[in-house]
Amino acid sequence: MFFEMAHKSLVHHALSKPGAGDDWVLFNGLSVIATGLEILSAELKATRREIAELKTLLQQPPKRTP
Fold this sequence. Notes:
- This protein is mostly helical.
- The chain has one domain (2-58).
- It is 80% helix and 0% strand.
- Helix 1 runs antiparallel to helix 2 (22-59).
- It is rod-shaped, with a radius of gyration of 21 Å.
């Protein structure tokens, strides 16, 4: 899935400026890919925190009402 996204990003950048050189396509395409990876990394960290919080809540004994 990642390689498909990376490929599409590079193709998109190549088609957006047909006269641009390979360096431009690679630099801009790779910068978009890097930004996407940073966003995914942040989302994964947040998801891990949420899962840890849920595990903690599930391990607590149920509260009884008087």
